[in-house]
Amino acid sequence: MVDVDSQIDTTPPSSGGMGDLLVRFVSAVAFAGAAMIALWLGGWFWVGFVVLLAGLVLWEWNAIISKFGISAGGEIAWQFIGALYVGAAALAMVQVRFNYDMITVMVVFIAPIVAVDVGAYFSGRLIGGPRILPSVSPSKTWAGLLGGALAASLACIGAEFYDIGPGGYIPGFDLTSLGGAITTGCLIAVIAQSGDFFESWMKRRAGVKDSGSIMPGHGGIFDRLDGFIAVFFILFLMAVVPAYLQQV
User: Fold this and answer.
1) Residue 44 placed within a domain
2) Is 11 domain-assigned?
3) What is the mean pLDDT of residues 40-55?
4) Which domain holds residue 107?
5) Is 3 within a domain?
6) Cβ neighbourhood burial of 121 (10 Å; 0-12, 13-18, 19+)
7) What is the pLDDT averaged over residues 24-49?
8) pLDDT at position 141, please?
9) Mean pLDDT, to the nearest integer, of 47-65?
10) Angstrom distance (rounded) from CA 221 to CA 80
11) What is the maximal distance between C-alpha atoms in the chain?
12) How far out from the chain centre does Cα 211 lie?
């Protein structure tokens, strides 16, 4: 999996040269490979992988808020928020794999988010221009966001040719028409971007550059998954919760 943090960042992540780029590449390939294997195996392998990721993200989340300089009660409140936010996204990730096969999950759920990453990275680098929220994340540009939205829309349009059943994969989102697919792609880009800004705000308040150091050349797991967590959190609210309430 690839996170949306790198896609709209128009400045190089570091000045380490080719050696640093190699480290980042190897780290990303190893992480993506582990995710693909778990996704392919499915079942409890996927559950265990998602639980591991969620646990690491929450560990990094708590490390960040410990630097907020707030009261013990405030830290507990933030820990509770983190458990709800990350836990809901993790449940959605698990449910998606239980409901669909590996290819469907890749084409319908993962590809649009990765497309945001790729599209925004290149458009942000090539076009640049005005920043969105320079006080929170000074290197994220409007051009990057628009490029990410365009790429995600194209991915959603491509998903239209894949048989995923009536109504699309997010109840309330129309994936049965060109306009619906474009709208969905734009929403995914905005949601992923919001998750990215939220994590950037947390790090800025804590005075840290990365959420952790578990991924050489990338930072922490939260750094890589903030956009995914935001999208799957919304998916949980729009799909998992209504499906559960219908069964009650």
Assistant:
1) yes
2) no
3) 96
4) 17-247
5) no
6) buried
7) 90
8) 86
9) 96
10) 19
11) 56
12) 14
Check: CB of residue 4 under 8 Å from CB of residue 196.
yes
Q: Is the model's pLDDT at 120 over the cut of 60?
A: yes
Cβ atoms 61, 222 nearer than 8 A: yes
Handedness of CA 25, 26, 27, 33 (dihedral sign): positive
- The SS3 of residue 128 is coil
- What value does the mean pLDDT take over residues 221-242? 90
CA proximity to 111, closest of 48, 201, 175: 175
Number of domains in the chain: 1
Closest CA to 238 of 117, 230, 46: 230
Q: Considering the entire predicted model, what is its pTM?
A: 0.85
Calpha distance 107→55 (Å, rounded)? 26
Residue 215: what are its φ and ψ, rounded to 5°? Answer: -110, 105
d(CA 177, CA 153): 12
The neighbouring-strand residues paired with 140 are: 9
Q: How confident is the model at residue 29 (pLDDT cuts 50, 70, 90)?
A: confident
Q: Could you tell me if residue 9 is inside a domain?
A: no
> 36 pLDDT exceeds 90?
yes
Cα separations (Å) of 78 from 15, 89, 139, 203? 34, 17, 27, 14
- Give, in order, the Cα–Cα distances in Å from 165 to each of 3, 108, 169, 173, 247: 27, 12, 8, 13, 20
Q: Convert the pLDDT of each residue in 155-197 to its tens digit.
A: 988 877 765 554 444 554 566 678 888 888 999 999 999 999 9
